[in-house]
């Protein structure tokens, strides 16, 4: 009942935006709300179900975005000819170095061990750079204004969503192997670090996804507005609803995105609910509540944690791929931890950690607030500053700072919920 | 081969910047490690506490500059630090009273406190941006160099210059004074000893009549001072930008963990380990190596292991290595 009421309230908020502002912004909020809900679902799996503290959501989301470029963009033939194979060879050599170092570490003993491992790493690094660097230069000098990267595989963009999940899962495996089983703070710092590194790689490895030059014009799974406007059948149908072709086409495209996202969200939600109610879910919660007891019952706690950490991160990766598809561009410079990591945490905590529906609700609600706090703040500030002289520096300063109000608001919401209602809007059953 | 010039180049480009940066990180990590030792949680708001403290100092510095107050060859900001510390102290004490105290009374799990500190982080971050704005601000004034590269070259007749900036000297001197004072306080005074006892074993400390609220109060005082000083030194050396301070969280935490969380000595060592590796790995060694190598072996490339944008990767890799091989840190953490 409570669930219905709260979801109804959020639906009203979004519909209200449609009536009061415009349907385009309402649909925008809805679409990003769907994406945010998927991210929150992933974090909830880790935190709500297993008590794992992941503050690297941004990194997994960005990996999902990278997957979209790697899968859907057409390959740049000239760049591949210039040094594609050599780059791949370099990467393989780099990976081989790490595997070799691990093997040397595992097979040798005593004083030789450290030196031998270091030697393997050093020699491997030098060879790796010698192979990779010229190839990277060659690739990046191929038509740098438009390409300068290898491009993708030219496959359908929807395929990028699961691939984004796989990429994120791979990163999660690496990080989980090192940091799980240690104290929870260590996992937090390690995930914070991996997120920064993923962003640094995206920004600097131009041969992969053009770095800060951004990849724009990603293929879309839905028709383009222009094509719709030139389609007489569509214009006629739009006129039937009393809409002009431009508005109708933008709404139609957004609706179609919304439908695709909803399918993903509902699928994942159903799976998450089934998992929660399965013996596996009960075991995870038992581990969360009392690790020692679970261990005494013969459960491999670290392995289970690794499992759920990978699953949750994969969901974040899928959401990241969806978001980049919606944006139609990959802009590594726009990934900010406050927006992509900590905001998702606010969603999960406010919605109700441990409750999948709660996470989804939190995703919609907090995203709505994140978008709408700015106009509300603008209104508030103009009321506050109404008494001040126009053009006084204080007034200008206060009006300028409105855009930063949302951080403050989110912090307040998080602290208030934690204090007054720590189990969230929809508590775990 | 020209060893003398080589050493000068090494000092100029690697040693001096790394020592200055290491001192800043060490002060930051000390704050994190003290909170961890006494209040027993990882404070995610620490970077933004530094930003808030520095912001107070920047605003007061601007005020002083407008009034024509200056500190001769030293940056005016040094005069403003005490006021900044006051501001930061008031801020963290208010935060403690209205936010953290509740969870302490409840004996909440550490991870809950970490999430609470995330909320505090949002609020501080928003406040900083609202009050001063999100841009880059420079507030260093006074003499720029103790020795400029040209003076050094004229003085010694060497090819390589050695530039020592005033801010770098101030950073190191201040850090040494602050650290010495802190260790004197922790080891010699009654309050300091009660803090160490509290960190070692909370129950025993309570049994022997130590007032926990007082310990917490003193801890926040010290942390606010450390954060402000660290932030101002970093800001003087580079510049003040809210987002950069937020990002400092990663190297600071890496330093604290590498040294051993809860161990002040470890925090200092960790700060320098991180700083030296960051500078050493992102520096293009060609210039220095040409002096040390015989001409036949001179490198052609830049001999830069990673480009400077990957400096976060360096702190991270060191962190991972320590976590894998010595999870308690270099100095066996968790004993103040």
UniProtKB/TrEMBL annotation, chain A:
List membrane-spanning regions.
Answer: 28-45, 52-73, 79-105, 112-131, 151-174, 186-202, 257-276, 305-323, 343-370, 377-395, 401-420
The answer to whether UniProt assigns keyword Membrane to this entry is: yes
GO molecular function annotations of the record? branched-chain amino acid transmembrane transporter activity
A GO cellular component term found in this entry reads: plasma membrane
Write the record's keywords in alphabetical order, separated by commas.
Cell membrane, Membrane, Transmembrane, Transmembrane helix
Indicate how the chain sits in the lipid bilayer: Multi-pass membrane protein
Location in the cell reads:
Cell membrane
Principal localization? membrane
Q: Which InterPro entries match?
A: ABC_transp_permease, LivM-like
Protein name, per record: Amino acid/amide ABC transporter membrane protein 2, HAAT family
The source organism is Marivita hallyeonensis
From TrEMBL, chain B:
Question: Looking at the keywords, is Transmembrane helix present?
Answer: yes
Give the UniProt record's GO annotations in the biological process aspect: D-alanine transmembrane transport; L-alanine transport; L-isoleucine import across plasma membrane
CDD domains membership: TM_PBP1_LivH_like
InterPro entries in the cross-refs: ABC_transp_permease, BCAA_transport_permease
State where the protein is found: Cell membrane
Topology versus the membrane: Multi-pass membrane protein
From what superkingdom does this record's organism come?
Bacteria
Gene Ontology MF terms in the entry? L-isoleucine transmembrane transporter activity; L-leucine transmembrane transporter activity; L-phenylalanine transmembrane transporter activity; L-valine transmembrane transporter activity
User: Which parts pass through the membrane?
Assistant: 6-39, 51-71, 77-99, 111-132, 162-186, 215-236, 305-325
Keyword entries, A-Z: Amino-acid transport, Cell inner membrane, Cell membrane, Membrane, Transmembrane, Transmembrane helix, Transport
Q: Which Pfam families match?
A: BPD_transp_2
GO CC aspect terms: plasma membrane
Family assignment?
Answer: Belongs to the binding-protein-dependent transport system permease family. LivHM subfamily.
Q: What is this protein called?
A: Amino acid/amide ABC transporter membrane protein 1, HAAT family
The organism of origin for this protein: Marivita hallyeonensis
List the top taxonomic levels of the source.
Answer: Bacteria, Pseudomonadati, Pseudomonadota, Alphaproteobacteria, Rhodobacterales
């Amino acid at each position: 009942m409570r669930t219905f009421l709260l979801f109804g309230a959020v639906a009203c908020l979004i519909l209200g935006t449609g009536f009061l502002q415009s349907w385009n912004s309402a649909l925008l909020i809805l679409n990003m709300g769907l994406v945010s809900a998927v991210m929150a679902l992933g974090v909830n799996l880790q935190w709500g179900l297993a008590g794992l503290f992941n503050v690297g959501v941004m990194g997994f989301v960005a990996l999902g975005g990278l997957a979209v470029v790697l899968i859907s963009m057409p390959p740049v033939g000239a760049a591949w000819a210039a040094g594609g194979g050599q780059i791949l060879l370099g990467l393989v050599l780099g990976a081989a170095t790490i595997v070799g170092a691990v093997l040397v570490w595992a097979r040798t003993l005593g004083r030789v061990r450290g030196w031998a491992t270091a030697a393997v790493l050093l020699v491997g690094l030098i060879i790796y750079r010698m192979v990779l660097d010229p190839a990277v230069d060659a690739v990046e000098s191929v038509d740098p204004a438009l390409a300068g990267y290898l491009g993708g595989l030219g496959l359908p963009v929807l395929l990028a969503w699961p691939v984004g999940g796989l990429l994120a899962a791979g990163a999660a495996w690496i990080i989980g192997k090192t940091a799980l089983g240690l104290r929870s703070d260590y996992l937090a710092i390690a995930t914070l670090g991996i997120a920064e590194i993923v962003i640094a790689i995206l920004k600097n490895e131009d041969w992969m996804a053009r770095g800060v030059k951004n990849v724009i014009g990603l293929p879309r799974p839905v028709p383009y507005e222009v094509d719709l406007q030139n389609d007489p059948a569509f214009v006629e149908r739009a006129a039937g609803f009393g809409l002009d072709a431009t508005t109708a086409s933008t709404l139609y495209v957004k609706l179609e995105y919304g439908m695709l996202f909803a399918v993903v969200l509902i699928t994942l939600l159903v799976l998450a609910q089934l998992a929660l109610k399965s013996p596996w879910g009960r075991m995870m919660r038992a581990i969360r509540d009392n690790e020692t007891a679970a261990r005494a019952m013969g459960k491999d706690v670290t392995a289970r944690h690794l499992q759920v950490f990978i699953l949750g991160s994969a969901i974040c990766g899928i959401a990241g791929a969806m978001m980049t598809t919606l944006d139609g561009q990959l802009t590594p410079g726009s990934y900010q931890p406050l927006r992509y990591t900590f905001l998702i945490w606010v969603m999960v905590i406010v919605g109700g950690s441990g409750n999948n529906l709660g996470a989804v609700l939190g995703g919609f609600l907090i995203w709505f607030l994140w978008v709408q706090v700015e106009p509300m703040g603008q209104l508030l500030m103009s009321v506050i500053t109404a008494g001040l002289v126009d053009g006084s520096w204080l007034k200008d300063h206060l009006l300028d700072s409105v855009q930063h109000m949302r951080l403050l608001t989110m912090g307040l919401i998080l602290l208030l919920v934690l204090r007054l209602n720590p189990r969230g809007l929809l508590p775990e059953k | 081969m020209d060893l003398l010039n080589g050493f000068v180049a090494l000092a100029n480009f690697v040693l001096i910047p790394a020592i200055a940066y290491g001192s800043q990180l060490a002060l930051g990590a000390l704050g994190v490690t003290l909170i961890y030792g006494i209040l027993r949680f990882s404070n995610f708001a620490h970077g933004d506490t530094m930003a808030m403290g520095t912001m107070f100092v920047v605003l007061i510095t601007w005020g002083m500059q407008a009034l024509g107050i200056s500190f001769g060859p030293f940056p005016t900001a040094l005069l403003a630090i005490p006021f900044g510390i006051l501001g930061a102290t008031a801020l963290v004490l208010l935060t403690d009273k209205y936010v953290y105290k509740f969870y302490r009374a409840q004996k909440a799990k550490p991870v809950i406190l970490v999430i609470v500190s995330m909320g505090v982080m949002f609020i501080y971050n928003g406040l900083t941006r609202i009050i001063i704005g999100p841009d880059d601000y420079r507030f260093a004034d006074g003499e720029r160099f103790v020795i400029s590269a040209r003076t050094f070259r004229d003085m010694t007749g060497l090819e390589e210059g050695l530039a020592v900036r005033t801010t770098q000297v101030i950073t190191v001197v201040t850090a040494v004074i602050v650290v010495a004072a802190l260790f004197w306080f922790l080891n010699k005074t009654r309050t300091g000893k009660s803090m160490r006892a509290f960190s070692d074993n909370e129950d025993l400390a309570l049994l022997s009549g130590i007032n926990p609220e007082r310990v917490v109060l003193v801890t926040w005082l010290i942390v606010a001072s450390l954060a402000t000083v660290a932030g101002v030194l970093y800001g003087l050396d580079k510049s003040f930008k809210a987002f950069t301070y937020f990002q400092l969280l990663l190297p600071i935490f890496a330093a604290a963990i590498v040294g051993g969380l809860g161990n002040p000595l470890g925090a200092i060592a960790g700060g320098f380990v991180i700083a030296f590796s960051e500078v050493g790995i992102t520096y293009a060694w060609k210039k220095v190596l040409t002096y040390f190598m015989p001409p036949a072996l001179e490198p052609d490339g830049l001999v830069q292991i990673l480009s400077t944008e990957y400096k976060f990767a360096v702190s991270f890799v060191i962190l991972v290595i320590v976590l894998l091989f010595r999870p308690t840190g270099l100095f066996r953490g968790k004993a103040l």
